[in-house]
Amino acid sequence: MTKEPAPGFKRHMLPEHEDLLEQAGTFRRLMESRRSVREFSDRPVPESVVRELIRTAGTAPSGANKQPWRFVAVRDPGLKSEIRIAAEEEEKLFYEKRASQTWLDDLKPFMTDAEKPFLEIAPWIIIIFKVMGPDPDQPDGVDNGKVYYVNESVGIACGLFLAAAHHAGLATLTHTPSPMKFLTSILRRPANERPFLVIPLGYPAEDCMVPDIERKQIDRIMTIDRG
């Protein structure tokens, strides 16, 4: 006997694949080629593509389905320049005062520094905010403002965005200037939003280079409990 869905529910159907291992391996090989890029081309990316990527990010699971994220897509050159100036001020303090020597030593293989030209060169800068508490733009009674597992939820949404961008053939970078309060004022975001992550988005520069790194082998990141 077929189970009828309860009110507010609908039947869930997954895509069927003849070979689960092959399907999983295909996606794994695709994602193995994803890399963080710091040298971008200024080649344009259509707004329609950015919208589709953010729609994908918005499919992420979230605590009580509150979807506590806001993706702010920036392509205005003036705003990007303003963001770069403010980010580099924080990065300069990080490299000169805030970071421990151990942290700086760990960063040496990546040859990073306080200069962040990609914030102006990449055609899009996606700034993700986590939504905390009531939305001042919503009328009273529309939303009780309660949010749950915010960092976990927003982190999953960001991961889906990165995967979707790579699947579409675009490069990304997870950039975290700290603190990021300057983004709230530059982008005129409401008081209930907190900056979470900055993701430059676009095509890699023609001569883009990335560090030759290796991922941990499966037996170093996975343990099977056989009971």
How would you describe this structure to a colleague?
- With 227 residues, the protein is of the alpha+beta class.
- Helices cover 38% and strands 11% of the residues.
- Strands 1-2-4-3 form a four-stranded antiparallel beta sheet.
- Helix 2 crosses helix 6 (150-168).
How would you summarize what this structure contains?
It is built from eight helices and four strands, in the order ααβαααβαβαβα. It is α+β, with helices and mostly antiparallel strands.
List its traits.
alpha+beta, 38% helix, 8 helices, 227 residues, 4-stranded antiparallel β-sheet
Helix content: 25-40%
How far apart, in Å, are the first and last alpha carbons?
A: 35 Å
By DSSP, the count of extended strands is 4
Question: What number is the mean pLDDT?
Answer: 94
List the secondary-structure elements in sequence, H or E.
Answer: HHEHHHEHEHEH
Shape verdict: globular
In terms of DSSP E residues, the strand content is: 5-15%
Widest sheet: strand ordering: 1-2-4-3
- Structural class of the helices, strands and pairings? alpha+beta
* Biggest sheet features: 4 strands, antiparallel
Radius of gyration: 20 Å
Runs in which pLDDT lies below 50 for 5 or more consecutive residues are: none
Per-chain topology:
Elements: H1 20-32, H2 47-57, E1 69-74, H3 77-98, H4 101-107, H5 118-121, E2 124-131, H6 150-168, E3 171-172, H7 181-186, E4 193-202, H8 218-221
Antiparallel strand pairs: 1-2, 2-4, 3-4
